[in-house]
Design goal:
This protein is an alpha/beta fold and 344 residues long. It is built from 11 helices and 10 strands. A 5-stranded mixed β-sheet has the order 3-2-1-4-5, sandwiched between helices. The two termini are 13 Å apart. 51% of the residues are buried. Zinc ion binds next to helix 4.
Length: 344
Amino acid sequence: MIVLGIETSCDETGVALYKAGSGLLAQRLYSQIPIHAPYGGVVPELASRDHIRKLLPMVEATLEESGIGGKDLAGVAYTAGPGLIGALLVGATVAEGLAFGWGIPAIAVHHMEAHLLAVMLEDPAPRFPFIALLVSGGHTMLVDVSAPGAYRVLGQTLDDAAGEAFDKTAKLLGLPYPGGPALAELASRGRPDVFDFPRPMLKRPGLDFSFSGLKTAVMLAVRHAAAHQPLDESTRADIAKSFEQAVVDTLVAKAMRAIDMTGYGVLVVAGGVGANQSLRAALQAKAGTHGAEVFYPRPEFCTDNGAMVAHAGLWRLRAGHVSSGQVIARPRWELDELPAMTAV
Ligand code: KG4
Ligand code: ZN
């Protein structure tokens, strides 16, 4: 059973072939970073147009490279949401069209489920049930994953996502888009407690997050420090590190709270911010004291890619959750609306 996976929800075009029992056969990833960098963020219309240019040639090349024809496939999986509507429509129409032409099912995959299950591409993979900390550019949530496809959102951000906070703070510090990795790199040369930034919502019960106040605190600190002279390199690094530490402390504290609440012994970290090394180290250090083990996808499977979509698509296909032939593109789509997978 081989599934072709297509990811076009934002600014990466991802294509991959995943085979049940053997794993990943081939994958291609094209990043639109150079297109959006001059604008300091993703320009949705440019993203859609570039997916149109890149997607079909990438599908052809991936199939050709692995000597696999469309008729050898069991299905075509695509990210159907959440994401940018125009970008999603490109992947959805191509996938539904190919599946129709090849006479095989298409599978509409939830982007966050694909992130969350990406950890199953690793060896060893975690066992269910687990807590998932999903931290990306658009989402920050803690999810109770009792079984494949059975998701209960325990808490989420009330305003900015963690990745968005990284990106906006990076912009304030004059770093290029995409800000998260650049900010982490600058932070690696800074000190964590030079600036006393807030750890939002830590004193309140519950598992929701809020990062907009932290962003404002950084903005005020930058303004204050730059009032009389331009920010020097070490001050910028200290601001970056103090900010990163505040985000990490908040994410770690809430993730541990979720572990304590459920008594689960496994924490899975997924999404682009899951590639952050300080976050990984802090979670690793803390989880043991709460009786939990932490699992991550490798960093390139934390950020958007086609492999996670092909893989999640195979799981949904096995559970019989295939699309009815209609193009599905849902900019907003709650994770806990998904049906549980009983037949995997
Ligand atoms: O999951 P992802 O690739 O796309 C979305 O679905 O949003 O996540 C992208 C986000 C961006 O905000 C990016 O700045 C952030 O993940 N990110 C990082 C790191 N690598 C990517 N944030 C902090 N540290 C990193 N190393
Ligand atoms: Zn993503």
